[in-house]
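From the methods appendix. Each design record in this collection lists the tokenized structure first, followed by the designed amino acid sequence. Records were kept in a plain field format so they could be parsed without special tools. The example shown here is representative of the layout used throughout.

RECORD:
FOLD TOKENS (320 positions):
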């Protein structure tokens, strides 16, 4: 795999600074039942990196002290971590808003037969990856049979009232482009998704989030292999909008890796680009003081242009 950080570091991305912490995003490990072409984590079925119970406990202690209101769980497939349910139960008891970044097909995995019911019981918001509403496009990006399995999972979630008006059980879908291009306007694409999924599969959802592909890890390496890396960075820069800088997610979020080390965002985590601090060393969640984060500079490089290009991009979709 081609390393992309050396291609990103000589950057002219503007300086940005932290605001009040709202979200603790936790990568529970790189194990996944899928292996997608666009994956910025390089997750897959053979990855062994899994967060320990000790680190999960340290994150819960941080949540109690930090004042952060949202716990955002990602991976890999975060649900495959053996401590996932314990973390959800305890965070729910603390009153946290909990988001599960779910690939949908994990709901159909052996041993996960009651996972959908567990998520509903603990009022977990689901942000579910579905890169298209057409079967051939999804299977080309994510593997044969993934679309059918995803639709089955969505229908099951709808049966539990996820995504239905007034239910309070939030089901959001996530779209990524299949290649080196910017996502189309989120509002129009959401309308297309809503119409097609309802008509063809009787599936409902709350919102569609469009997320720009990051030129890092598996997707970045593919760009390098095809000679498209520089052109993609140019595309991001030419379409960057300074007004999106006010809403980038890293201002109010920290990202925790499977070992408990802290980064400004999930993308910096995948590049092993640590937070800026006086020690110049990676900081661990067990020693992090949330009160000292506000006003601190955020580590940036050229990949950050993906967050401010066009309509903008974050874990919550377009910034506009």
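DESIGN:
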């Amino acid at each position: 795999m081609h390393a992309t950080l050396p291609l990103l570091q000589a950057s002219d991305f503007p300086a940005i600074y932290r605001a009040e912490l709202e979200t603790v995003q936790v990568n529970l490990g790189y194990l996944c039942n899928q292996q997608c072409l666009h994956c910025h984590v390089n997750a897959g079925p053979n990855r062994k990196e899994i967060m320990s119970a000790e680190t999960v406990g340290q994150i819960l202690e941080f949540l109690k002290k930090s004042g952060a209101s949202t716990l955002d769980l990602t991976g890999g497939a975060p649900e495959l971590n053996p401590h996932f349910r314990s973390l959800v139960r305890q965070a729910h008891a603390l009153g946290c808003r909990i988001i599960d970044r779910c690939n949908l097909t994990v709901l159909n995995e052996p041993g996960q037969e009651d996972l959908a019911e567990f998520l509903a019981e603990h009022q977990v918001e689901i942000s579910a990856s579905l890169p298209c509403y057409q079967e051939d496009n999804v299977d080309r990006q994510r593997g044969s049979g993934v679309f059918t399995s995803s639709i089955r999972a969505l229908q099951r979630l709808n049966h539990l009232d996820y995504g239905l008006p007034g239910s309070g059980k939030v089901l959001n879908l996530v779209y990524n482009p299949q290649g080196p291009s910017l996502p189309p306007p989120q509002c129009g694409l959401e309308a297309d998704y809503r119409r097609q999924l309802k008509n063809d599969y009787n599936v409902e959802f709350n919102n569609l989030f469009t997320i720009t592909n990051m030129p890092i890890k598996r997707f970045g390496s593919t760009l390098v292999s095809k000679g498209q890396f520089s052109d993609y960075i140019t595309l991001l820069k030419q379409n960057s909008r300074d007004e999106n800088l006010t809403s980038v997610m890293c201002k109010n979020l920290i990202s925790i890796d499977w070992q408990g080390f802290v980064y400004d965002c999930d993308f910096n985590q995948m590049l092993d680009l640590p937070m800026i601090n006086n020690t110049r060393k990676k900081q661990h969640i067990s020693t992090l003081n949330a009160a000292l984060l506000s006003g601190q500079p955020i580590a940036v490089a050229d990949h950050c242009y993906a967050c401010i290009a066009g309509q903008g991009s974050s874990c919550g979709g377009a910034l506009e």
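APPENDIX NOTE: The beta strands are 23-27, 70-74, 97-102, 125-129, 171-175, 207-210, 253-256, 262-263.
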